[in-house]
Design a protein that fits this description.
The protein has 741 residues and is α+β, with helices and mostly antiparallel strands. The chain is 23% helix and 25% strand. It has 16 helices and 42 strands. The strands form nine sheets. An eight-stranded parallel beta sheet has the order 29-26-25-24-34-33-32-31. Strands 13-15-16-22-21-18 form a six-stranded antiparallel beta sheet, with no helix packed on it. β15 and β16 form a beta hairpin. The radius of gyration is 27 Å and the shape is globular.
Length: 741
């Protein structure tokens, strides 16, 4: 078997062995053509034919392929510890690549591969084709609304003679200007001097080092000069060079449709003015109830009713208030609509169930889901259930899942992908999480309703209050075809927006607030629920990256945002990291802890304060966590009022200092700080062993909320930061009573 996929898997940051790279080759350069083959292939060549436009004699080349290590979906398939040296060698032989001669424009290339097997068999692929594109100046390829900022003569269009593929242009950047926003960014708030892009991607841990994100937006503030910002009004991928190549330019390159037209929105004024202009076009947050500001608690090993209630009891026993519990491992891990161990009859047509259709064994994992939910509600605790927007196809589906998958295909509610012969077939997830799963097209109203109706009984009959809408990053590839006919290059980034919106609509239709908790998103996500920063290790670096993520997300219009306190993955954090992270989380919009599944091995890796206390042996953990959880309870009215004001005024809830003081360059020199609401300035301790912290106080009069000491602003101060305190200042002394235990 030999295989060539011209566009590869669609992994945005990796080239697969068997693809063409670049997918749209550039005239005057060469392209890589790749093949994946059985280990029996001993030689391969590629026949390349070029035919000029308007007729004329075709030219034919034959180039030899060389063996290469196989890569797919960003992973090197080279055996490693999983295979013997012979096996690694076999896989290494499975990849073959070659370079084309220098490519010409104004014509069409056809190519196919011919492989020789070790038994002498000859195998050929079908013919593939492409046209080499070239950049050319086209001034009107960018349409601007607002003030004109595009540098004259900088607009180029990548065109292959039949259609456009990309546009590039430049925006001005002057000395002293800082550029921030771009959705959720982990490495830094100020992106000046960097290169980045806008594509939704599941980066499992180390997002700050990898500089990839679940929640990008092609939007930014330019702060420090006359004040402005911009939004590349597209859902396709955009690349930015923010003064890295040329310190006086922001270079932008964007994918386009065949017409080659790109819309640019420019906003003038303060950061608040810029954000308001952006949100006027894409939508702003819907106000959520005050209870979302209470502590959220979760652990991936809380996978029985008994364990959930045990953890709720421990919160009460330790006098640590909790407002929401998220259960991730509640379902049968198959349909993600039925509780594990529930008994019911399969609806062969894929129709939804109601609670009355289920029985729950007394000795099962969840003997009484509704009773559990009612008991949590009686204790003032809201319940959220985990979701994934996929129909698992591995292992082979059985029972209700098989019926649901068949119904999804039959009723045409799934995303599809192009086939080599020009048709389509159901898209099978190309990511590494739930590989080959089917994916409902939640961007389509009918398909979204089909999907969420199967979850309606959870809300209406059991009383669930919200959903953790995880895993919105599985749409890979420009060759995907959505139900409205548009393709993946245009639609993939919009999927997580529609995903959260669909679940929000379900909750609204049942009379509930649209509380979703997502990690993925894009432009337009501002209007749909709450977000968390995704999967991360328990390290000080990840702590810092997460705070950057919250600030950049806030600068892009995300209001309800949080993170997993001190990280959720790997061994537990130190007591110091856990407490410093809990302190900081007291002053971000969503305060929640969570832990990754650890196969119930001992010792436990739960991020509950009692487990951290037991594992570390540090007696300070529970009393100090209690102190800050109780402070958080007292802050709920302040946070709820501040969120309402944020939605009314577009001044972020978790507010980067440049929003309040855009003309003060010192706000960029200070270590991570933010305002939470109008009146509290927070300066978290982000390094181990620190007993004090340098804090920049902008202009005005500030009061240390712990000591009552007053400071004149517009200067750096050094304040004590023992483990029981996080530096917090207020410009409203009326708030000081909230900080009295």
């Amino acid at each position: 078997m030999i295989r060539h996929r011209p566009t590869g898997s669609g992994h945005p940051y990796s080239v697969d062995t068997e693809q063409r790279s670049p997918v749209v080759p550039i005239a005057g350069t060469s392209a890589t053509l790749g093949l994946r083959a059985d280990a029996t292939v001993v030689a391969a060549v590629c026949a390349i034919e070029w035919t000029p436009d308007g007729g004329g004699e075709a030219s034919i080349d034959e180039v030899t392929l060389r063996p290469v290590t196989t890569t797919a979906r960003g992973q090197i398939i080279d055996g490693g510890h999983l295979a013997s040296a012979a096996g690694r060698s076999g896989r290494s032989r499975g990849g073959w690549q070659t370079q084309t001669p220098s490519l010409r424009s104004d014509g069409t290339y056809r190519y196919r591969f011919i492989a020789t097997h070790d038994d002498g068999r000859i195998e050929r692929t079908r013919w593939f084709s492409f046209r080499a594109a070239q950049w050319r100046p086209v001034a009107d390829a960018v349409t601007e609304s607002g003030a004109s900022r595009v540098i004259a003569g900088s607009v180029d269009l990548l065109h292959d003679g039949r259609r456009a593929w990309r546009v590039r242009f430049a925006l001005p950047l002057t000395s002293g200007e800082r550029v921030a926003g771009f959705g959720e960014r982990y490495d830094a708030l100020d992106q000046t001097g960097t290169q980045l892009d806008s594509v939704v991607f599941e980066q499992y841990k180390n997002q700050g080092a990898e500089r990839k994100t679940y929640l990008p937006m092609p939007f930014a503030h330019v702060v420090g000069g006359d004040g402005w910002g911009f939004h590349i009004d597209t859902s396709r991928r955009v690349w930015f060079d923010v003064g890295k190549t040329d310190p006086q330019r922001i270079l932008v390159e964007a994918e386009t449709g065949p017409d080659g037209v790109l819309s640019l929105r420019v906003f003038e004024g303060t950061p608040v003015d810029v954000l308001r202009g952006f949100l006027d076009g894409v939508g702003r947050a819907f106000e959520l109830p005050a209870w979302v500001f209470r502590l959220w608690a979760s652990g991936n090993e809380w996978n029985t009713q008994a364990e959930v209630m045990r953890q709720a009891d421990l919160h009460a026993a330790h006098d640590i208030p909790v407002g929401s519990v998220v259960i991730e491992a509640w379902s049968d891990e198959s349909t993600f609509t039925a509780f594990r161990d529930a008994r019911y009859s399969v609806t062969t047509d894929g129709a939804p169930h109601r609670l009355a259709d289920f029985t729950f064994p007394e000795d099962g994992a969840w003997p009484d889901p509704k009773g559990m939910t009612d008991e949590l509600h009686a204790r003032g605790i809201r319940l959220h259930l985990w979701q994934i927007p996929l129909l698992k196809m591995r292992p082979h589906p059985l029972g209700q899942l098989a019926a649901d998958a068949a119904a999804a295909v039959r009723e045409n509610v799934v995303i599809r992908e192009s086939t080599p012969r020009g048709g389509t077939r159901p898209y099978r997830n190309r990511g590494w999480w739930f590989p080959l799963a089917l994916m409902p097209d939640l961007t389509d109203e009918r398909a979204a309703r089909w999907w969420t109706e199967k979850r309606r009984y959870l809300v209406e009959d059991i009383g669930v209050d919200g959903f953790k809408t995880d895993g919105g990053e599985h749409a890979w590839g420009a060759d995907l075809v959505y139900l409205d006919g548009r393709r993946g290059d245009e639609k993939n980034n919009t999927f997580p927006v529609a995903y959260a919106a669909a679940y929000g609509d379900l909750l609204r239709s049942a009379g509930k607030a649209p509380v979703t908790f997502s990690r993925a998103g894009f432009t337009g996500s501002q209007a749909h629920g709450a977000f968390w920063a995704g999967d991360e290790n328990s390290t000080w670096a990840a702590f810092r990256w997460s705070m950057n993520a919250g600030l950049s997300a806030a600068a892009s219009g995300i209001v309800y945002w949080g993170w997993d306190i001190a990280g959720f993955s790997g061994d537990i954090p130190t007591a110091e990291l856990y407490l410093r992270a809990a302190q900081a989380s007291t002053f971000v919009p969503i305060m929640q802890y969570h832990s990754e599944f650890n196969h119930h091995r001992s010792p436990s890796r739960d991020r509950t304060p009692w487990n951290i206390a037991e594992r570390t042996g540090d007696p300070r953990v529970i009393p100090l966590f209690r102190r800050f959880a109780q402070l958080r309870e007292r802050l709920v009215p302040y946070l709820a009022a501040a969120a309402a004001k944020t939605i009314e005024t577009d001044r972020p809830l978790m507010r980067p200092l440049f929003f309040e003081w855009p003309d003060d360059p010192a706000v960029w020199a200070a270590d991570i700080e933010w305002m939470i609401g109008d009146d509290l300035l927070v300066a978290p301790v982000l390094e181990p062993g620190a007993e004090q912290r340098d804090v920049y106080l902008p202009v005005g009069e500030w009061v240390d909320v712990w000591t009552g000491e007053r400071y004149e602003g517009e200067r750096m101060v050094t304040v004590a930061a023992p483990i029981e305190r996080i530096p917090v200042f207020t410009r409203n002394p009326a708030l000081l009573d909230l900080f009295r235990d």
